[in-house]
Amino acid sequence: YNGNSVTMRTWEDDGTGKTYEIDQPFRSYGSLSDSLADYAALMTSSTYAGTWKSNTSSYADATQALTGTYATDSLYASKLNSIVAYYGLTAYDQAPVTQTTGSTGSLVWNRYRGSYTDAETLSIDEAWASYKNYK
Predict the structure, then answer these.
(1) What are the start-end ranges of the H helices in the chain?
(2) For residue 44, what are the contacts with CB-CB under 8 A and spacing of at least 6?
(3) Which residues are bridge partners to 118 per DSSP?
(4) Separation between Cα atoms, residue 3 and residue 119, nearest integer Å
(5) Beta bridge partners of 24
(6) Tell me, what DSSP letter sits at residue 63?
(7) Per-residue pLDDT at 97
(8) Burial, 27: exposed, middle or buried (Cβ in 10 Å; 0-12, 13-18, 19+)?
(9) Is residue 13 within 8 Å of residue 66, measured between CB atoms?
(10) Whole-number pLDDT of residue 66
């Protein structure tokens, strides 16, 4: 990365659970879209191939692949797995419903996802969009 950065104090783990703090440069961007584009490029690099759905059999495999690469925290995988379990995030692992012909039944067009979803999902997406615009 050759762009701007900001130096922040960060908590690190030596891989054995022993922690320490250092000053570390973090990438800095001029816009949210630049940040998201760089993050997508980073996560699709071969460094993170172990996190790709095509290379894992479960989210636990992916979170384990992040430990020691994306995060130095030796408990990173277990912390992420706890969050996934607590909030039931595996519900989002299913491919989105896409309906191109026929009756939509109880589905509505969700412009945020580019597909038909239930009304509750659309409502959540609208709330997130409103929140992002508010900030």
Answers:
(1) 32-43, 59-66, 76-87, 119-134
(2) 52
(3) 107
(4) 41
(5) 8
(6) H
(7) 55
(8) middle
(9) no
(10) 92
Say if residues 110 and 121 touch (Cβ distance below 8 Å). Answer: yes
Residue-by-residue DSSP string for 100-118: -SS--TTEEEETTTTEEEE
Which structural domains are found in the chain, ordered by start?
5-93 (1.10.530.10), 95-135 (no CATH)
Taking only the tens of pLDDT, the chain with its 135 residues reads 889 999 999 999 888 889 999 999 999 999 999 999 999 998 899 999 999 888 988 899 999 999 888 888 889 999 999 999 998 888 877 765 555 544 456 888 888 888 888 888 888 888 888 766 654
88 alpha-carbon distance from chain centroid: 15
Residue identified by tokens 């491919």 is: 95
The two three-digit tokens of residue 27, written as one number: 């990438």
What number of residues does the chain have? 135
Separation between Cα atoms, residue 82 and residue 76, nearest integer Å = 10
The most distant pair of C-alpha atoms in the chain lies apart, rounded to whole Å, by 59
